[in-house]
Amino acid sequence: MTEKTTILNLPEEELVHPGNRACSGCGLSIIYRIGLKALGRDTILVVPPSCLTVLQGLYPIAATQLPCLNVTFASTAAAATGVLGALRAQKREKTTVVAWAGDGGTSDIGIQSLSGACERGEDFIFICYDNEAYMNTGVQRSGTTPKGVITTTTPIRGKLQKKKEVPAIIAAHGIDYVATASAAYPLDLYDKIKKAKTISGPRYIHVHTPCPAGWGFEPRYTVKIGKMAVETGLYDLYEIEHSKFKLTGPSRKLIGKKRKPVAEYFKTQSRFKALSDKRTEEVQQEIDAKWEGYENE
Amino acid sequence: MKDNKYGSMKSHSEPGPGDGGRTGSWRVVRPVIDNSKCIPAKSNKMSCFTCWLFCPDGVITKTIPPTIDYEYCKGCEICAEECPVDAITMVEEADFTEEEK
User: Fold this and answer.
1) For residue A126, which phi and psi values (nearest 5 degrees)?
2) Using a CB-CB distance cutoff of 8 angstroms, which residues of chain B are in contact with residue A22?
3) What interface predicted TM-score (ipTM) does this complex get?
4) Distance from CA of A165 to the nearest CA of B (A)
5) A-contacting residues of B 11-50, CB under 8 Å?
6) pLDDT below 50 — which residues of chain A?
7) Which residue has the higher pLDDT, B18 or A11?
């Protein structure tokens, strides 16, 4: 997979129906639409409670044309293992099994079953869309909410703890493919899912997903804000393929170039309004140190 | 549902549009494409389609010229924001008469 997908050769067939219950300007809708194009029809989805449960369709109409198995929060990866077992018994080993969970279902509640499945080496793709809080239930803090962010459970001073580095935790299991992507770069995500399909064993893709309702910005800026997170260097797009780390796409192009100041990104969203200048400065220093490491490689 | 082979109590959904109803009614502003500015409409070639790529609901078609399904468009304005030539303008829904809707 060296050739990059462009808008023109992206498949036209839609596997997600319009008229679903996602908010207008939802970042998840973009990646779900493009992600299913990459996965293709021969796919079974396993989805824990999340915004995706709402988006994929409630009874009696489903917005998704693929089979979706709705499971409990803690058992996402375990249920995917069960689906794999059932497919093996039916000798349908070509079917792709995809667990698609939110950041809460991945980093907090679902991490033990995901860790177990990675350790067992189950042949499935796990996609985590990271909107940095429990958006579906009303913006409660999660393990991946960044420090200083206002949520309904951290209302005045913002969250006191740091964001959990989930891709690094999963990469520490030594699995063959770990990648990060962003909703603002759907073609990059498409290529990464396509690549993941060619590899066997557990594969993990972490997608940064802006949420207008939870982050406090106008729906029209979903893509702009997603791009800004990458351009400021706060969120970087990379692949860890067979333990080899490589920056990809837009992040790779940033090497040696001047990045936007992270304060600009913080100003665009009302969830960062409790952030002090000192904390902003700290984040900028963390980003600079991280990128110095990338540039010296 | 249609298939009654396994009895009447089944809890699976059938695929189809409009799971959340006619989501076009959520819209306050309506995206209107100006075909004299739109790149594929102007050049009559398969090109650009940035609006089609980023539309969260997939209501914009990848055709020449691109069209928008107003039945389900939620009016999020991402297409207007991302269009490289500003061919999409957002018009107040109140400006349209009942017939035009």
Assistant:
1) -110, 120
2) 56-57
3) 0.91
4) 27
5) 11, 13-23, 26-27, 46-50
6) 1
7) A11
